[in-house]
Amino acid sequence: MDSPQAKQVLARHGKSFYWASLFLGSALADRAARLYQFCRFVDDLADGDLPHRLDSLEDIRAGLKDPQHPAVAEIAELKAFIALANESQLPLNAAAELLDGMLRDQHPTALETQAELLRYCHAVAGTVGLMMCRVLNCQHPRAESFAIDLGIAMQLTNIARDVLEDAKMERRYLPAAWLDRPLDPETIARAGNNALIPVADAIDQLLTLAELYYASALKGIHLLPWRSRFSIIVALRVYRQIGRQLKRGGLKWWQGRTVVSKLTKARLSISSLIDLLSGLSPKSVAAHNSALHRHLKGLAGVE
Predict the structure, then answer these.
(1) What is the chain written as a DSSP string?
(2) Which CATH superfamily is domain 4-293 in?
């Protein structure tokens, strides 16, 4: 099933992921784009200003819980996702958890602990990694834990990149436990002198934490089918570069989003060949570090 519209959405809104998808081949790239299209749809709905967005998100979640729910027929994006889920055997409990994360974002957010942060990251991104494993026809059940780690790492990078933008939407994902003084989203959004250094220090912690999850994910990539392995390595390297550039630039979060240039993406893609060619066989991949999931017990894909 070819879906040009899904690829267009990916190209327009997910430039790093679109670049990586170019190495997947037509069939897998199409399925990955269809997964991204659904995730983008619910994310845009959650971040938009439609008056009935909360009801719509709840209807989508109900449809994921019960494919016979009227919402599946009424919402084209949900119907298309259910078709993809049936085709790729996607875990619908992971998609429902993704909606739980989006529903949480409908209220002002001020996280308190690292555990809360990681559970949120699992909801909105670890679940996507879990579903992507199925989209890419991965046959190794062990790969799912590493895929969750890649989703978490990328979401930690997102949060580091978007601190100012999130604060303007009344969201502070930086745990209060990491801040040396109380800072609510409104204070962060003003980017006054009293917020610059404490927030930069917390972003530094975010990026340090993300590196642990990126390192785990890079090991687990060798459990993926050979055909999709290179694409995911490229996605990992390009997304991790956002945080590295942010750090190298002095963590000046108040200056807006950090962007990875096309030239840098090309360079990272070439260097990704080293990871691919020096990669381990699936049997040689060490056991997943369960400590990375100690705060995620009971969530989709986590024992």
Answers:
(1) ---HHHHHHHHHH-HHHHHHHTTS-HHHHHHHHHHHHHHHHHHHHHHS--TTHHHHHHHHHHHHH-TTSHHHHH-HHHHHHHHHHHHHT--HHHHHHHHHHHHHTTS-EE--SHHHHHHHHIIIIIHHHHHHHHHTT---TTHHHHHHHHHHHHHHHHHHHTHHHHHHTTEE-S-GGG-SS---HHHHHHT-HHHHHHHHHHHHHHHHHHHHHHHHHHHHGGGS-HHHHHHHHHHHHHHHHHHHHHHHTT--GGG------HHHHHHHHHHHHHHHHTPPPGGGPPPP-GGGGTT-TTSTT--
(2) Farnesyl Diphosphate Synthase (1.10.600.10)
Domain borders along the chain are 4-293
| 202-244 pLDDT tens trace | 999 999 999 999 999 999 999 998 878 888 999 999 999 999 9
Contact in structure between 22 and 78 (CB atoms under 8 Å):
no
pLDDT tens column, 107-134:
999 999 999 999 999 999 999 999 999 9
Does this model's pTM top 0.90?
yes
